[in-house]
Each structure stands twice: as C-alpha cells, then as structure tokens.
Amino acid sequence: MRFRKEVKVGFLAVIGILMSVFSYNYLKGFNLFEKNRTFKIIYNKVDGLSVSNPVTLNGFKIGNVKKINFNPDNLQELIVDIIIENDVNFPKTSYAELYETGLIGGKAIAIVPDYSNDSTIAKDGDFLKGSIKPGLTELVNQILPQVQLQLEVVMKNAEIVLKNINSLFDAETKAQLKTSIDDFSNLTNQLSETSNAISKLILENTQNISVSVENIKTSSEKISDITESLSPNTIKDISNNLDSLLSDLKSISKNLNSNSGTFGKLINDDDVYKNLDSTINELKILIEDVRNNPNKYINFSVIGRKYKNPKKDN
Which residues contact 258 (CB under 8 A, 6 or more apart)? Predict the structure, then answer.
C-alpha cells in the first residue's frame, strides 16, 4: 500500500516536471510537440538580442532564438542557435540578418533567402551567414560625430562673425545707427500722419470728389460725342489745313532768318539797322528843332508881311 502511494507521488512529480518544462519552453516560444529544426549563426556582436527573440522570414515569424554562446574556437565571436518551427525551406547560402524591431531597441533575426546563388536547401544543424543591419542607434552614432564636427566649424565661424560685428560697430557707429533708426521711426510716424490726413481729407470731400468724377465723366462723354460727330473727311481737312499752316509758318521763319526781304534785312543786316537808327535820331533832332523854332519852318503873314529872323542880342 505504501509502495503504491510512493509510485503515485513519483508519477505525479514526473508529470509536474514535464508540465513545468513544457510550460517553460512554451512561454519562451518553443513548442516541444512540433518538429523543429536548429540552425547556427555566427555574429561579432549581438547587442539587444536575447533568448526567445523572434526569427522571421518576409516579416512572418517562423521561429525563435534558442541560445547564445561564445564561439569556443574564437572568443571574439558569438554563436546564436535558432529554432525554425515550421516546414519553411530556404537555401543554405541565405543570410540571417540581425535587425532592430522598433525604436525602443528590440532585436530580431530575419532570414534573407538567397535564391540566386545556390538552390541547396538548408538542413537541421547547418551554419547560416550572419549579418547586422544598422539600426537607428547605430546610424545616430555614425552621424553624430560628423554633425558635431560641423557644429564646431559653424560655432567658430559664428564667433568670428560676432567679433567682426563688434569691431565694426564702435560707439560712434552705434550712435549713428541709433540716430538712423530714430529718423526712420520719425519718418514712419510722419507718413502715418500724412496718410491719416489724406484719408480724412478724402472722407471730408467725398461728395465733391464724386461730383468732380461725375463732371469728368460727363465731359468725357461730350468729347466722345464730338469726336463721333466728326466725319473722317472733316478730320482729314483739319489735318490738311494744319499741315498747310505749318508749312506757311516754316516759310515765314525761313524768310525772317534769311537776308532776302525787308524783315529779313531788318533782322539780320547790321547796316540797315544802323541806318534806320541814324535816321530815327535825325528825325528826333528835326522834331525838337521844329518844336523850339516853329517860325523857322513856317513862313506866312496876314497882310503880306514877311517874317524876319529876330536879331540876336549882342
């Protein structure tokens, strides 16, 4: 009886252990009741990769990471064992690419089939070529030093520019700049006041402006009516008369500028001008003498008496 109890206890213990192992492996992603294949991959580093991380093909999960150990032949390398849980086949020359699954740093292994070089199907226990796809963190670490160098160059250039600006803007230049800004501000204020005055003037004379515009419109319509009333022949006659008048004016101007003709000689001949001036002066003297001595030029008597020159007093 006692023996039966011990058997029962041992049997239950074995079942419990088996259930624990199955549960542990199941929680890790391994199914002991399925036909699995194991492959090995060699990496130089496996940052962020841990046991039970997924293995995918074209984005579909086909297995998990089983274990990670150092390579006994080369301690600088790591051997990663993966388990493929289904019957997916891929060439032996395929790559096992380690990549980041998200921004928070999770890792996974993607099988990249190589159908172009070899058609030999990978078998259980084969080694696959390992590769590492640069993640966001690695890209940032690669770019950050270059960005830092560029920032240092920019900061140095900015420092040089600031020094040049400080040397350029001395006290006198700053005072002149402040005066220019004040003048510009005053000009802006004056323009604003002028604009307000113009707006006020327009508002106050809106009615007058409307009347003026209406008058201009009426005048324009009348001019248009007059223009329309003129026939093409009338316009042509006016144009011909204007051309004839311009020709006559040109001829008169030409005659005046030449020495031919009376007016031309009067304007251009100095001798004629001098003779005319001399004649005018003599005529002035004669008129003055007639005014002073009229009896000298007018000789008449009422009863036949002749005029005799008065004797000059001695």
Answer: 264, 268
Q: Which domain holds residue 25?
A: 1-33
What tokens were used for 273? Answer: 């001008």
Q: How far apart are CA 273 and CA 66, in angstroms?
A: 134
**Distances from the Cα of 300 to the Cαs of 179, 193, 288, 297, in angstroms?**
97, 90, 21, 10
Ranking 129-133, 148-152, 240-244 by mean pLDDT, the lowest is 240-244
154 three-state secondary structure:
helix
> In terms of domains, do 28 and 115 share one?
no
Burial annotation 28-61 (CB, 10 A radius, 16+ → b, else e): ebbeeeeebbebbbbbeebebbeeebbbbbeeee
**CA angle, residues 134, 139, 145, in degrees to nearest 5:** 140
Q: What is the rounded CA–CA span in Å between residue 276 and residue 262?
A: 12
Residue 302: predicted pLDDT = 46
User: Mean of the pLDDT values across residues 140-146?
Assistant: 77
Chain position carrying tokens 């292994």 = 109
pLDDT tens, position by position, 77-127:
999 999 987 778 888 888 899 988 876 667 899 999 887 876 788 888 899
Q: What is the CA radius of gyration of the chain?
A: 62
How far apart, in whole angstroms, are the C-alpha atoms of residue 203 and residue 132?
Answer: 78
Number of domains present in the structure of the chain: 3
Task: Tell whether 23 and 103 lie within a shared domain.
Answer: no
Q: What are phi and psi of 49, to 5 degrees?
A: -85, 140
CA–CA separation, 1 vs 252, rounded Å? 162
